[in-house]
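Quick one - first record:
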Amino acid sequence: MKNKAQKQKDLETLTSQFQEAKAAMLVSFTKMTVGKDQELRRQLREAGVSYSVVKNTLARKAAAGTLLEPMTEQFKGVTAVALSTSDPVGLSKAIAKFSKANPEIFSFKAGLVEGKVVELRDVQAIANLPSREELLSKVLFLINCQAQRLVTVLQAVPRNPAIVVEQVRAQKEAQGV
C-alpha cells in the first residue's frame, strides 16, 4: 500500500502530464486481454502518445486547473487516459482505429482537443484528417508551385520576343525575301 508521500508524488506526476497535454482521450475497456492491451499500447506509442490506466479520484484531483478539468465527470468506472503533447491527429487515428477494430472490449468516453471536449464522431472526423507532416508537405508544394509559375512567367518576357523575331525571319525566308 502506498504511503501519503508516494500518493502525492503520483498526483504531481499526473498533474504535470495533464498540464503538458494538448489532446487527451478518456477510454474504458472490459475483458481486455493482455495481448490486446499490448497491441493498443504499441499503436499509441508509435503515434507518440502516452497511455495509462488511472485511479478516478487521483485523476479528478490532477485534472483540477488543467485543460482536462471539463472531463472530470467522465472519471467513473474503468478509465484509461491517452495523452498527446504534440499531434492530436495521431492520437485520434490510433484511438479510432483500435475502437473500430475492438468495439466489444474498448469504448470511448470523452476527448479533448486543443481545449475543446469532443465526442467519438469528432474523433473519427479528426482521424480522417491528414497528419501534420502531410499538411506541411502540401502547403510547401503549393508555395513551390506558385514560385515555379512565377519563374516561368519571368522567363517568358525575354523568350517571347526572340520567338517572334525567329518566326518573322522564318516566314520571310519562306517567302523568298
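second record:
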Amino acid sequence: MTLIAALVASVALVQGAAAASETAPSCVVPESFLSANIDLTRLANSIKEHHRLDISVVGSASSALTGPEGARFAYPAQLEKALRERLPGNEIKVTAHIQSRQPTADMAASLAGIVKEDQPVLVIWQAGTVDAMRGVEPDDFRNSLDQGLDAVAAGNADVILMNMQYSPRTETMLNVSTYADVMRWVAEQRDILLFDRLAIMHYWSDEGIFDLYAPTNGYAMAHRVHECIGQALASQIISAGHLGADKLQTTR
C-alpha cells in the first residue's frame, strides 16, 4: 500500500470498518482519559440559568461519517443524543461544522465567524489530522491553535480540544504523536480541556474492544465508534460542568 493510500485509509478508518461480532462493543473509557479538572463555567451557567446548551463542533473529515445517514450516526449527533438523555428537561443543540481536508490554520480563521453565528457556550474543536498528513511545522500548528482559541475566547465560549483518531494501520507512517503533544501542551498552558480521542481509541484497539486494523465495506463498527465517542464526550462535559443529577436538582 502506498503512503498516500494508507493516510487516506487512516482518515476513513472508522467510516469503513465492520463490527468484529454481532454484540455491540462496550463504550468503556478509563476515567483517567476523561480529565475534567477544568470547569466549563459558561456551559454550567447556561444549564443552570437557561436550561439550554448550544454546542458547536468544528472539525475535519474524521469528525464525520459517509453514507446517506452519516450525519445522524457521527459523533456530533451522538453527543447531542447522549446529552439529551442525561440532561432531561434541557434544550440541547449541537451544530457541526465539518470540512474535509481542512488544516488547522483554515479552521482557526473560520472560528470567529462560527462563534458569532452559533453563539455557543461550548466549542469542541477537532484538529491535527490534516496537519499531520501534510507535515505542517509543529510551531505553525501551535500558532494556528492559539489563534483559533483566541477567537473562541473572544466569543465568550468554553472550549474542548479534540485530537486525532488512532489508526494502527498507519501508526508507523503518520507522525501524529508530535501534533498530539502540541495539543496537550497548548491545553495545559491555556487551562482548557483536551478530549484525548487518540488515547481512547488506542485503548479500545489494545483491549480488543474494536478491531481498528482491517477495514471492510461495512458501517456497523463505524457507527458504534462514533456513538462511543459521543458518549465519552458527554461524560467529560457533564463532569466538567458539574452537571450530575444532584447538582441539577438544586437548580430546578
